[in-house]
Design brief:
single chain; about 300 residues; alpha+beta; 2,3-Dihydroxybiphenyl 1,2-Dioxygenase, domain 1; 2 domains; 8-stranded mixed β-sheet; 5-stranded mixed β-sheet; 5 helices; 19 strands
């Protein structure tokens, strides 16, 4: 029987589809009221900063385990949203939303590992989506609207890195001129086999200004900027880290990269790239949570920002 008009299939973009086959293989299709994904900016800004990373979702195969892991690692609190048995969790750092956590539905082998999905701001999701397909992106989900959140779509780039487009109905968070608080995100980096080609791909979508930083091995880090703001960078996949594939990598600010890395291991995670100094005096590390989601952490030196020991 056709469901009443106020009902719809729960959409996989927020992992609200209750897959057929759950509950002992009964194959029952579940219907529910449209799920209201929380707004990105509160209060609303009305601004759209094209090419800026404005949200992250953790698509995890173990939602309860992920909440324990990241709370223990970063001190995040959570606000849970429920809709007919489906869950969406917003992570909070010092009371401010920093990410969403959703249960990943395993439909093929590529979905068996958890992953962080970055959402980049665009002025027009449909137009940017069409442009992405012209430059060899692949579709993960078509453009669609979500109450309160706005319009979004999910793609993979030519090397297979997953990302999403979003036009936020509440606008984008303002650029913060001050160093980010502990437990919040810094600028993302794309790990790529061919950094130059990937930089061109994203320049086509977001109209980035592209600037390479030369090293002895060539342009190993490429900065992607909009106006005076560096929005992202592209880096060559680090050697010796076999668990890493082309992907967007976002970094959480911590007090100590070494201490956080050790804590991640105690919690069942892994160190993929140990703490490494960068050219600006910061220290970064690349970690993996217990179900395979890869993320970075970074520590700012005292001369950049005065941090009181927690």
């Amino acid at each position: 029987m056709k469901p009443p008009p106020r009902y719809c299939f729960l959409r996989h973009a927020v992992l609200l589809v209750l897959a057929a086959g759950l509950g002992g293989g009964l194959g029952v299709k579940a219907y529910a009221e449209p799920f209201e994904v929380p707004v990105i900016s509160n209060p609303a800004t009305g601004a759209h900063l094209v090419g800026k990373l404005i949200w992250l979702d953790l698509e995890t195969t173990d939602l309860s385990g992920a909440k324990i892991f990241y709370r223990s690692l970063f001190g995040w609190d959570y606000r849970d949203y429920h809709s007919y048995g489906a869950n969406y969790t917003v992570a909070l750092a010092q009371g401010n939303p920093v990410a969403g956590l959703v249960r990943r539905q395993i439909v093929n082998d590529t979905e068996r590992r958890s992953a962080w999905l970055p959402f980049f701001s665009v002025a027009d999701v449909g137009a940017t989506f069409a442009q992405a397909l012209k430059v060899r992106a692949l579709v993960r989900s078509e453009p669609e609207d979500f109450p309160r959140r706005g319009r979004q779509a999910r793609l993979t780039d030519p090397e297979g890195a997953a990302f999403a487009l979003v036009n936020s109905s509440s606008g984008d968070p303002s650029d913060d001129p001050n160093p980010r608080a502990l437990g919040t995100w810094g600028s993302p980096s794309l790990l790529a086999r061919d950094p130059a080609a990937e930089a061109v791909f994203y320049q086509e979508l977001f109209r980035y200004a592209v600037l390479g930083e030369p090293t002895h091995a060539g342009f190993e880090r490429i900065r992607l900027s909009a106006g005076t703001h560096e929005r992202a960078s592209v880096r060559r996949l680090p050697s010796g880290a076999d668990a890493l594939s082309p992907q967007w990598l976002s970094f959480v600010r911590v007090f100590s990269t070494v201490g956080t890395s050790r804590q991640a291991v105690k919690l069942g995670g892994h160190i993929l790239v140990a703490a490494t100094p960068t050219t600006n005096g910061a220290t970064t590390a690349i970690l993996e949570d217990p179900t395979g989601a890869v993320f970075g952490v970074f520590e700012l030196p005292p001369e950049i920002v005065n941090v009181t020991t927690p």
